[in-house]
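name: query_chain
kind: protein
chains: 1
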Amino acid sequence: MQIFKYIDRINLLDKLIRQRRTGTPTDLAKRLGVSTSRLYVIIDQLKDMGAPIDYSRQLYSYYYKYEFSIFISVTVKALDKTNLCMISGGQNFFPIILNTTFFVE
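structure:
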């Protein structure tokens, strides 16, 4: 699935940034399996979410301006009968609409 690939990419990106081992943007894009322009989009999105990412031309690496870390995870687990019964599927969110009959005159 694409979502798991994306999560792995972000986690690897974070690890490389924290270690200051990203290399040039072109090298990093190849390592992550994305185009350079897509890498810039990802970096900009992370910056928009508050990640203090900068690039050092001396180190040839992205780095965090201050201590920072990103970690994304997904947990998949089976639900037991008790938890399954608690899933409303939005029924509690739209009770009036679902139980209302509309008349047109």
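note: Residues 77 and 83 are 11 Å apart (CA to CA).
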